[in-house]
Amino acid sequence: VLEIAKATGTHVKLAGQGSLNSPSPSQGEIIEYVGFADAEKRKGLFSRAKGLLMPTIYLEPFGGVSIEAMISGTPVISSDWGVFPETILHGITGYRCRSLDQFVWAVRNIDNISPQVCRDYALANYSLERVSTMYQEYFEMVNSLWNKKGWYQINDKRKSMSWLERYYPNVTPNSKSRETIITQTDNIVYPEEKEPDYALDLSWYKREKKPGISFIMRARNEQSTIGLALDSLKQLNIPYEVNLVLNQCTDKTEYEATLRLKNGQAINIYQYPFQLGKTGLENQCTPVTSIHSTIWLLNWMLMKGNYEYTFRWDSDFVMTSALSRDVEKAIADKEKIANIAAIFSDTCKTNTEPYLWSNELYPRYTRYSLWHLTRFAIAPAKSVTLAGKIIHDSPLKMKKDYWTMEPWWEREEREGTQKLREKAKKKYEQLKKQIGGDCTT
């Protein structure tokens, strides 16, 4: 481990029972012994680690800590014997090595491994739900040995042999990234219908961020306001980027944004082709597991950030000089990581919406904090008063066509979501009956 750390210049945290014998001064600079690590301590270590190093000479029968690491989205670099050829997919969930040269190369290339793929692989193959089918099969095999026919016993009620199935990520060096796939409007590959755990998508949360702000902005037919919103951000005296997601735009919103991109403003433009549940009752009835959920969209947008700080911004928001000064002052004060919550008061010119700066453990949108600026990934220790410094200045007066569109569950642009559609439709009808009248808009 010491030779690997020296060759790569990597800081290594060594966890386990025992102690380091007579560490030299140079060894202390690159290797930190943290002692015994229980489950909670391991969670913390994995959440901040670029990878788990397991150069054991022991023939591991399972090596459960490697599975824990992958569930946390942490790639594993292990020996190439024992159980690891079975559990570590070389080049996909980590690397398997047999020499110092190979371990050094693996550490230097650990960023090529996707944390999300590691997590998906581990959960699909080693979760309690998955392993329970294996135990069930073993118990039934043992039980059958005590029948008269023993090994020759035939179970005519058997429906499958899924206990032997394994999930292997469809990842090759030429595979398209999830981002490329999701932004295609033809031949779309959809996510699985379960809640996406972006809180642990460490590919964005753990990676090194640049000083500055990432604004995440969704726009749908905002050509009359998008220019004003983007231009107002240029008064900031700190680096920033705008991650703009165009949601089924049919006007010149993209044209307005592209003009500013060509003039040198840092704007990344993405497409999101799915109809979303409209604000209000329709949104409340939309399961967060659905691609039609604003929650799902915001979490997907949240992963785009390349800077330390992330703001959710509207395409009709205007940055004021007062807010820009407070933000710049807050960013300059990085005494320690802290969770700070601030509720913005209703001081908008033409509209009033409370925006909450969340103080959750991970920056992640939930049903109960939909309209908010996410907390800073790195927040100042001192309290920051931003209430009343934000202006929702929207010159848009006309009614938008899509406000009166039928709910997303009435449109059949995708197969495989019937269960979600029926769930949303049933809840919608129940609430509609409770409050009376139409609640589409």
UniProtKB/TrEMBL annotation:
One of its GO terms (molecular function) is glycosyltransferase activity. This is Uncharacterized protein. It comes from marine sediment metagenome. The lineage of its organism: unclassified sequences, metagenomes, ecological metagenomes.
